[in-house]
Amino acid sequence: MGSVADKVKGAANEVVGKGKQAVGRATDNPRLEGEGAAQELKGKTQKAVGDAKDAVKRGVDRL
Predict the structure, then answer these.
(1) Cα–Cα distance measured from residue 24 to residue 36, given in angstroms and rounded to the nearest whole number
(2) To the nearest 10°, the Cα dihedral for 50, 54, 56, 59?
(3) For each of the chain's 63 residues, which pLDDT tens digit applies?
C-alpha cells in the first residue's frame, strides 16, 4: 500500500474511531467507546506509517 493510501485509511479510521467513542459515551456503552479508541489509535498508526514511507522515499530520491 502506498503512503497516500495509508494516510487516507488512517484518517478514515481516526474519524470513525472518534465517532464510535462519542456514541459509546452518549449511550453509556464502554465496549463501543473502547472499540472507538482502538480504531482511532489504528488510524494514527496508519498515518504514521504513511509519513514514514514518505520520509524513506524522500531519502532515496536524494541519492
Answers:
(1) 8
(2) -170
(3) 789 999 999 999 999 999 999 999 999 999 999 999 999 999 999 999 999 999 999 988 888
